[in-house]
Amino acid sequence: MVDKLLEVKNLRVELQTKDGVVPVIDDLSFDLDYGESLSFVGESGCGKSMTALALMGLLPEKVGRIASGSIKFEGRQLANASSEDLRKIRGNEISMIFQEPMTSLNPVLSVGEQISEVLRLHQKMSVNSAWKRAEDLLDAVNIPDPKRRVHDYPFQMSGGQRQRVMIAMALACEPKILIADEPTTALDVTVQAQIFGLLKDLQTKTGTSIILITHDMGAVAQMARKMIVMYAGRPCEIGEVAQVIKTPQHPYTTGLISCVPHLDDAIIDANNRLSEIPGIVPSLREFGSNKCLFASRCKHQMEQCRAERPVLAQFSNKQAFACWKREIIDAG
Amino acid sequence: MKTFGLIVNRLVYAFVLLFAVLVLNFTLMHMAPGDVADTISQSMGGADEELLIEIRKDYGLDQPYYQQLVTYIGKVLRFDLGHSFFFNEPVSKLVLERVPATLLLVITAQILALLLGVVLGVYSARKPNGILSHFVTLFALFGYSAPVFWTGILLLIAFSLQIPLFPVAGMRDVTIEGNFWVHAIDVMKHMVLPVLTLASIFLALYSRLARATMIETLGTDFVRTARAKGLPERQVVYKHALRNSLSPVVTLAGLQFSAVVSGAVLVEAVFSWPGLGTLAFQSIIARDTPTILGILFFSALVVIIGNLLTDLALRFVDPRVGASK
Amino acid sequence: MMDRKTENSEYLEQASSPSAEAWEMFKRNHAAMAGLVILFVITIGSIFGPLIYPTDPFDMVWAPFSPPGEEGYLFGTDYLGRDLLAMVIHGARVSLVIGLSAAIVSIFIGVTIGALAGFYRGYIEEILMRVTEFFQVLPTLLFSMVIVALFGASLTMITIAIGIVSWTAVARITRSEFLRIRELEYVMASRASGVSNTKLMFGIILPNALPPIIVQSALMVGSAILFEAGLSFLGLTDPNVVSWGQIIGSNRQYILDASYTVTIPGIAIFVTVLAISLVGDGLNDALNPKLRAR
User: Fold this and answer.
1) Strand, helix or coil at B304?
2) Taking the mean position of all CA atoms in its chain, how far away is CA C193?
3) pTM, full prediction
4) CATH classification number, C22-292, choose in 3.30.980.10, 1.10.3720.10, 3.20.20.140, 1.20.120.1460
5) Contact A91/B231, CB-based, under 8 Å?
6) Which of B227, B235, B244 is the closest to A58 by Cβ?
7) Please, which residues bridge with residue A8 across strands?
8) Predicted ipTM of the assembly
9) pLDDT tens figures, C56-91
10) In chain B, whose CA is at the least distance from the CA of A110?
């Protein structure tokens, strides 16, 4: 059997907080094929960024750990791999770009140095050829005049340009997976569109798989084929993007989609106002308890939701979701 | 080119500062009760009014204040700092003889404190609750709180009286003969205790700051990026984090130059180090005004040069410093 | 009804004044509390010590260099046969008084200059900051040595000499606080309602700028004590009083025979300044919780 590119099974990540151990990722399973794009969606604190850090082996030292489950990358187990093995994969076969382009680049090193050091490290390139390649990469991410700009420092660039540099850096070693954690949240709307366009372009050219982490349903619709909706550390709905947006099954997914105008006009209420999900996310203390964590905000809630955690079940249309009211929603 | 313009700019500013130092010092001397003539006559065992007038005329003390000031500054510009009647030598010669010893002490102590401070800071920042980290905190408290001359005397008692490892005083052993290296090693032996004493205060200061900024830097986004690139921990710490933590420490070191020179005065007194501090002490006791002025002038010069070097170092460490908007 | 009441009182407790909150935090800091207690003991000792232990520190009471404990002299005698314990007790007064008053002088100068620079901006700021830089360039100890030597080694002159060279840090901190606070909304509002500049500076901005200034002031007292010790170690001190630095300075030639004459007064300086540093650190943690990591 050929190994999947990435296969995550029953992943549980625990964080040490002052209130005790909290499962910030609680029973997450998914897989990712070569060239595929997958998106994690949810509000902040739902565990989507933790998933990225867990995949990268970058969970905060001594505070976070993978408690159980497996992460298989081309058949290699990453969940309990040595930090040295993980290090060799990071930035090389799996790389990542972050939310804050303004602070994610080192202010005292030139961008050329920051790009070329990855190449020297993982591809054992010489200083000269690495710098040459850094120029090409800047060109590839559409930074004008790369020959000159390669010597610039981050403070001499705009936010959008810095994120392009981050992308160039992440793609330097032609990784198999690129994880983009809210890559455009800190940027202007027009720049956002450019960055997504660039990512899509580069994906078709290089065949990289992309994991996009976002709270923005619009970005998901534009970028990904498959999506996982996360709530309070748990996956609540998994499926093909087009299908989930068209027929969301979990009440939380419905709520998220209705927050976005024009995605599905029907859900926007009569006054044409943007609706939002009432209530607040559960506190970390509630994470891991045996109930539906969304229940307090759900208009369909019932006795069972507060007594038992709903299981994630797959349906014939390949959409999977975790909700006790599935028949009722199905029917209505 | 930009750096060149900057250096010119800083040099001009340095001259203005030095000029101000001259004016202030001269004015203070002028305001003080008693003058050179009184001191000279005292050292001669008293003199009559006529002789006093003659001395005042000799030294130009009968002229109005501003004229004396102009004459003095004019002389300084020609590198003539006057004549010391106490040592009976030109002040510039006297001071210049002592400058190298003080510079040797000050610069070595500053560099040692910076290097060691940063190393200690980095090590303890990587394990904020480790033994070394607590040691740095404790040591920093000691460094702030112990009077430097007392630290010096304690080291003297321990390492040259109880355990005679190092010489008790001075900068060189005049009885030693040999080539350059023999003398160099001799000077180094004499340097160990004074340099350690002087460095201890600043080592405490720098290691504490280095530890704090390093802890902060290790939590930043770009350090996370560096880790996400798969860089080995060593490179993450020393290439990415350290360079960003250096500039606050270098800035602090620059601000400390005047304190280092002040500390050197006390350390020189403890170890009879033949530098500006000892000379200052002797000339203050003897009320040797021209020499005191010369010393203040030169020590301000040392501080200004130190600040200039800090400025350049900062530019080297952090490309954002002095970049045009 | 009951519920509401308890909720209210809880709210009141939480909303206690910032200084009370800071004190709560300070109390939890064991090192700082220890420092405060030590400081209290030293202060009480310096005030009442001479009454309880009336030996004159200038009297030759016993043979020179008798080691601590001999003939009932707890700290022994110095090179002139004077009672070291009496000297240390009397020295505490000078060190504390000069430390405190020199700190007050430098805080006064520093706050005034920093406040003016931060409030008025423009050329006033430019000039005052240049003056500050100028004083940073002066080698502080040498400069105050010259002042003391020229104008006489009275306690007042020593205090002024220390205060006049030590204010730059306070000025810089005050200025940056003023620059920050003057842009805040409530200051703008007061300005718009026609409050006079003096009232704005000292009635509105200064009270809000106090936390970092208080921390710096505490540390200032410690460094002024060290400064005085340095001057008197060099012999630049009032010959009619005893101070810790001066005991060390006058006995240091005899460390071979009697190292305790140097160690004991040194410990006195060290412990005092250490206690002040601990209190200063505690104040820093209590008043600037954001900066606790530093």
Assistant:
1) helix
2) 38
3) 0.81
4) 1.10.3720.10
5) yes
6) B227
7) A30, A71
8) 0.84
9) 777 666 767 667 766 666 677 777 777 777 788 888
10) B319
